[in-house]
């Protein structure tokens, strides 16, 4: 199913739309927590702190948008308040696992070096996806004259992608090959997530 068509079906149903927003909030929150978990004990840059803070803000912002659809919808991240629960919960974790295995095998990284490299590649792949996903969602919101709005997230995600590119270029002269591999892993997980979402529409 076409992603825009899928989102149109979700947005047309208030309950499903609320669960969609809650699912995105969960995934942004998971991303923020993973960024924080990957931090070095002392070598923490301004960009990393900014990125973690903005991902938390996105989770908060998306959660607040739910109230525009009605009162008392999706109060927490329980399974019944999410879409494609299993795939949504483990999306980032599985991407992290694939990327870490790749980095261990390809670059023989371990410890803090592995954590940081995985943060770079996983975040890059997610930002590439976010740059595609949120504008399509906003188009559907505009077309349906929804009160929900994700324009501020779109702007910040574009900034994140630019920041990740700068960090990746500093990380390795061969960064594009590694980044493409992370995007390949993410694309496979996105396909599975789409199938999970389609089952619920």
If you had to describe this structure to a student in words, what would you say it looks like?
There is one protein chain. By secondary structure, the protein is an all-alpha fold. Helix content is 78%, strand content 0%. The chain has helices at residues 3-11, 14-37, 46-65, 85-107, 111-143, 151-171, 175-200. Helix 2 (14-37) runs antiparallel to helix 3 (46-65) and helix 5 (111-143) packs antiparallel against helix 6 (151-171). The longest helix is centred in the middle third of the chain and has 33 residues, at 111-143. It starts with a helix and ends with a helix. The mean pLDDT is 94.
Provide the descriptors you would attach to this structure in a database record.
201 residues, mainly alpha, 7 helices
**Global structural class:** mainly alpha
How would you spell out the order of helices and strands? HHHHHHH
Q: Assembly type of the shown chains?
A: single chain
Count of DSSP E strands? 0
Report, as a whole number of angstroms, the end-to-end distance.
11 Å
User: What overall geometry do the principal axes of the alpha carbons give?
Assistant: globular
Percentage of residues in DSSP E strands: under 5%
* Number of helices in the DSSP assignment: 7
Spans of at least 5 consecutive residues whose pLDDT stays below 50 are: none
Helix content: over 70%
Describe the main β-sheet briefly: none
Rg result: 17 Å
Query: What is the residue-mean pLDDT, rounded to a whole number?
Result: 94
Summarize the structure.
With 201 residues, the protein is mostly helical.
């Amino acid at each position: 199913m076409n992603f825009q068509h899928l989102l149109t079906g979700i947005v047309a149903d208030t309950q499903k739309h609320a669960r969609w927003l809650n699912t995105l909030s969960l995934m942004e929150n998971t991303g923020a927590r993973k960024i924080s978990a990957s931090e070095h004990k002392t070598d923490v840059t301004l960009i990393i702190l900014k990125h973690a803070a903005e991902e938390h803000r996105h989770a908060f912002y998306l959660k607040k948008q739910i109230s525009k659809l009605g009162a008392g919808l999706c109060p927490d991240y329980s399974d019944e308040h999410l879409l494609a629960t299993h795939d949504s919960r483990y999306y980032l974790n599985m991407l992290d696992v694939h990327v870490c295995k790749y980095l261990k095998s390809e670059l023989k990284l371990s410890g803090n070096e592995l954590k940081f490299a995985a943060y770079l590649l996983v975040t890059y792949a997610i930002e590439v996806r976010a740059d595609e996903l949120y504008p399509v969602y906003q188009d559907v919101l505009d077309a349906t004259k929804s009160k929900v709005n994700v324009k501020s997230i779109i702007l910040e995600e574009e900034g994140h992608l630019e920041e990740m590119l700068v960090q990746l270029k500093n990380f390795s002269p061969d960064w594009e090959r590694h980044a493409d591999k992370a995007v390949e892993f993410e694309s496979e997980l996105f396909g599975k997530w789409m199938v999970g979402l389609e089952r619920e529409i």
